[in-house]
Specification:
The chain has five domains: 47-255 and 292-304, Aspartate Aminotransferase, domain 2 (3-Layer(aba) Sandwich); 257-288, no CATH class; 313-457, Aspartate Aminotransferase, domain 1; 465-486 and 633-796, no CATH class; 516-622, no CATH class. It contains 20 helices and 31 strands. A hairpin with a 4-residue loop joins β22 and β23 (548-553).
Length: 796
Amino acid sequence: MADFEAYEYSSRVEAMRSREYPMLKDSVYLDHAGATLYSKSLIDRFSADLLGNLLGNPHSASTPSQYTTSRIEDVRLRLLNHFNADPEDFDLVFVANATAGIKLVSEAFRSLPNGFHFAYHEACHTSIVGVREEALSNVCVDDNQVQNWISGEGIFSKSESPRPDVLFAYTAQSHMDGRRYPLSWPALLRKSAPSTRGPYVLLDVASLAATSSLDLGHSDSAPDFTVLSLYKLFGFPDLGALIVRKQAQSVFDYRRYFGGGTVDMVVCDKERWHSPKAAFLHERLEDGTLPFHNILALDAAFDVHADLFGSMASVASHTSFLTRRLFDGLTALRHDNGQPVAAIYSRQCDSLGTGPVVSFNLRNSTGAWISLHEFEKLAALKNFHIRTGGVCSPGGIASALDLKPWEMRRNFSSGFRCGTDQDVVFGKPTGVIRASLGAMSTVSDVDSFLTFLEEFYQEKAPVVREDLAQRTIASCDELQVKGIKVYPIKSCGAYCVPNDTYWEVRPEGLAWDREWCLIHQGTGQALSQKRYPRMALFRPRLDFDRGLLRVSYRGKKPGNLPDEVCVPLSADPTQFDSRAFLRGKSSRVCGDKVTTLAYASSHLNKFFSEILEVPCVLARFPAGGEGLGVRHSKAKLQEHQQIKTATPKVCPGAFPELPSPPDSDSEQPPGKILLSNESPILLINTASVEALNRDIAAGGGRPVPEEAFRANVIRLLFLVGRVFSDFIRAIVQGTTGYPAQLRPIRIFSHPRKNISAQDAKPHTMIVANQEHIWFNGWLWLSGSAQILRMAFRFGI
């Protein structure tokens, strides 16, 4: 497709997107490899079909049931025709998704009398890798090993008698990086063993078939088993298919399980006998009632897809053009010092072509990896929806990131798990950013994503504001504490410490800060404002005279609830649920598994559950715990986050010279925390808030109050930038055994106490307004841009 035609095609898609894909308003969707999007016309047409026709269970003999059965067979044929698969040579089995098709094949081979050997390509999806657990032996192969196999070099022993069958599985197009693999491999492998039965071939086309045509017109060269997920092609319905070459269908003869609708007769009682249906393979493999509504939706899906996008060849050309544009844009992104912004793992020069998938990681100007977890949060706030992590491609990830098996096992031993926010372990990333495009993607999607990367991740020469550069610490009179706050219940409102109050600093942080939480009754997960913003309107109050924590609600609540509830500040054991499954309840807080004490009072828990409209209980995580009753700070600065300064600039005469810390961070034991996200105390500077609000206002956003940051200590400080960062270094030394003495400011701490924190880290900003529950994305975005460019540090 020439560039002019490509732009014209993209313009047509752009013109109909607001009508056909209203869910995309103000959003850029870049996860089509996971699932593409359904159109309004598809849903409208399918709804009309459902309302205009009476359907029934295909296993019944009624008129609606027979009508449904007839249409299912029409759709089956339509799907085979889509892949140019002759029904004389192929049968199609409806399954839940590609994984279900793979599992069906795996169960068949497991049942073979002599078992089977299994070979799989390193680029395979996790669902294919799992087949190896059913095989007598298995081997993971790369391109060269497959070519050697084709050349006659066997990968399994030929001396076995009887010889087990061999199954080889690979993907037509990697869902990780878009690389395509030869569709000629099945035929070549069969030719490599002319005197014996060549290996059976299982081909995963879920990624390829989403945006490209697949021709199964030549049965002799086609794979024996082809699996795909139709929601990746149409967005809806949620359905998959297994296409079986009839020459290989005898593999299923030894399958043991049978479900309803797959047999002609079953004898129970004293004899065990059954007769499977024999007319068509799909009749004995489609266990139980088919998802007939989903199957019939494919009629509308085919029609609407053709109306909106034309042929699959047009879709393939369109997505290929966009992929090249994205790849070239990523390649061109450079930092001010010439270093690339992106480490790209996808290729664009392969003779087989490349699918619409680009995988990469981001690096700063010094080469340090950018956190995938932080990238995904920032992208979501800018309405870019994209996949990060291992993307269910263990072999592809290991190859792309040069992760050896021993490194992956070491990462696991150190705590890394799929789905966690540990994305850089021992200096190497554990996953990738995957941007994938679909039929309804446009040039503007690609360009806006590249602009986003340029704005937030391309480091340019810093601009030093002259007014800030000239600011110095003139006297200690400028260093005033405006206020101190604690948040007794995690993610709920603050309690403001009264003026002229001495406040204890414990090893875990400020006394009474984040010692309680609300946990979901079903999952044990601690609730947060991100999902339940009304938590901000709970107002805890510490009543020391009566020894109570009182909680009220500032918003509208059900009329049957009291104005406030309260619990003792003392850890009274009679307050907690004594049942084994609640006392010492296993919970998760910020990814950590902890043991909390859940309160037994139904009156108390009803107050929180009905306001938040979620079943939850109040739980306590008291200070001084052991084992799962204690958490540790995670705050560790990456190289790109380090504040580089030669000599701390501190208030003259205010602090003694800091002693030298230990040589290595590894020598420092982690500090204790309660239910705070990562670090025990967050301090912010009012001047920084004002500077940030100026940035937000310049971009057209709403200013944010200091409360939005949920800080513990607010300093009325006329300093920002590097000077403020250096001042913070003077307050917190962050090395155990080398605490800096905090000045005895009466509102903050008793003079004999001191504060010690581990490796100060910029705090993730809370973007919910704490009074009216509206979210301000400008706060995060403006702050992130500043932090990534190292213009200032907001809090510790």
